[in-house]
């Protein structure tokens, strides 16, 4: 029985799958962003995020465990060096998957997987977003103060017209009441 054994085999034998994920993780750590299919990116995310969490504590044991996964000294230096400098304070979610469309040849869904804190464009966009304020539905604030002043000016001629019509309406109502 295969109860609870679910993960994407990616159409490969176990040895090929492990080698492929190791190479993709090395490329992601060294280049900070790679383009791949969505299925491979989701499996790579499960493979690389525990390594980054382990790298937060720089011990010989953690370096050896990471090396057993990556099998590349340069990737280990980069992981325990510049990657941890940027994502060391983050509690998780070190990678981001951005869908880019479909591949022409086989229509496979393509995406970009990247390390979160290394994308300068997204970091620049997130800073101005913090400056915006929340607005309530009641409209309190400068806009609400300016709006009644404009309404009062517009209401003044209408109020005079309504005052002229009001006595006539009341006279007609009183006449109708007398007839009944």
Give an overview of the whole structure:
By secondary structure, the protein is mostly helical. Helix content is 61%, strand content 11%. The protein has six helices and three strands. A three-stranded antiparallel beta sheet has the order 1-3-2. The longest helix has 38 residues, at 142-179. The model has no long low-confidence stretch (mean pLDDT 84).
Short structural summary:
By secondary structure, the chain is mainly α.
Question: Layout of SSEs?
Answer:
Blueprint lengths: L13 H18 L1 E5 H18 L4 H11 L2 H15 L7 E8 L6 E7 L4 H10 L12 H38 L1
Antiparallel strand pairs: 1-3, 2-3
Q: How helix-rich are the residues, as a percent range?
A: 55-70%
Total helical segments: 6
- Quaternary organization: single chain
Q: Which descriptor suits the 3D outline?
A: globular
What series of H and E elements makes up the topology? Answer: HEHHHEEHH
Keywords:
61% helix; 180 residues; mainly alpha
